[in-house]
Specification:
globular, about 350 residues, Rossmann fold, two-stranded antiparallel sheet, alpha/beta
Length: about 350
């Protein structure tokens, strides 16, 4: 038996070495391919899009988008290989990946999604309202740790079942944040993301454009309306997960929790955004006094017991406290919380 196990171990070691060697070979071949096979064209395409992401000439004309679209379409086939690229190039491509997708598939939305500048019918551009531009941003509103938390939750859900995932997202906005992150995860693992939002006109058009930009058509099912209306579409116990990021007003968050908890299967996950910390670290009386607003400054007791004034969403904190207390998972350095059922 010892000799047999030695041969098995040797074989496994050789297989692992071969896999590592093959990955290294791909890295080397790609690092040679980009600068030589594509040559200066790829470098100039990357630099052109980097410049467009850094700054946008509001006096530019449609022709500028035409040049950017051609550059993005040449780079689009490289995106699946980003993890294999040399690290300097990988970092640069990661920064402009969303812009490449937008410019290649829906270039007309690039100025408003990345610079808050709307493309008008005559080919000219006009600066958008700052708040509107923020919510239509193609970069999304999620912080890096929020994205990491959502991906971690998605991995847990995938590992729980071999069946295609069924996840509902309440509050999709323009689709550049959680829709993109959760939608991409569902696409890779198989399943459907149901995105629920009342979407006013322009926001709805941008959302639909983002589905095409990030290649999520057929994966994401938009449900235009209120969260209460959408809840009636799903049978009890039929969903793997529900992500809450709609209205942050106290009564609305409570209503969403109560409406969707029965829809989630045993072992599934209810998760949400904009929870600064576990509820017990806030003064409930103070939060009740500001519960009718979306966000406000309130006292927060940190891990050392020191009180600081921070900007929070009081309705989210209160609703989570009412239904779960501190019996939730709050992901470090993020605003994401989760409750496994």
């Amino acid at each position: 038996m010892p000799a047999l196990w030695k041969r098995v171990a040797r074989g496994l070691g050789q297989s692992f070495d071969c896999a590592v060697a093959e990955r290294s070979r791909l890295r080397v071949s790609l690092s040679l391919w980009l600068p030589t096979r594509v040559g200066m064209r790829a470098r100039s395409d990357i630099e052109l899009i980097e410049r467009a992401c850094a700054d946008w000439d509001a006096d530019a004309h449609q022709d500028a988008l035409d040049d950017l679209q051609r550059a993005a379409q040449r780079l689009l086939p490289v995106l699946p290989q980003i993890p294999l690229l040399p690290w300097q190039l990988r970092r640069r491509m990661n920064k402009i990946e969303a812009a490449i997708c937008c410019l290649a598939r829906q270039p007309g939305f690039f100025p408003q999604m990345f610079h808050g500048v709307a493309l008008l019918g005559d080919g000219s551009f006009q600066r958008m309202d700052a708040d509107e531009a923020r919510h239509l941003s193609g970069r999304g509103l999620l912080a890096g740790e929020d994205i990491h938390a959502l991906r971690k939750i998605g991995t847990r859900l995938h590992r729980q079942t071999a069946a295609p995932l069924r996840i509902v997202e309440i509050g999709s906005a323009a689709g550049g944040g959680s829709t993109r992150i959760v939608g991409d995860m569902v696409k890779r693992h198989g399943g459907t993301l149901y995105s629920v939002d009342p979407w006013p006109g322009l926001m709805h058009r941008v959302f639909l454009a983002n589905l095409q930009i990030f290649d999520l058509e057929g994966v994401v099912v938009p449900l235009r309306g209120t969260s209460a209306e959408a809840a009636a579409r799903f049978a009890d116990g039929s969903l793997d997960g529900v992500f809450l990021d709609g209205s942050h007003i106290y009564e609305d968050v409570l209503a969403d929790i109560d409406a969707y908890l029965p829809k989630i299967r045993k072992g599934g996950i209810l998760f949400g955004h904009d929870l600064y910390d576990v509820p017990s670290r806030f003064d409930r009386g103070e939060l009740l006094g500001i519960a009718a607003v979306n966000n406000a400054v309130a006292g927060h007791r940190d891990g050392r017991g020191e009180v600081e004034r921070v900007d929070v969403h009081p309705g989210v904190i209160l609703a989570v406290q009412d239904r779960f207390g501190d019996d939730i998972e709050h992901f470090p350095d993020s605003a994401v919380w989760a409750k496994q059922l």
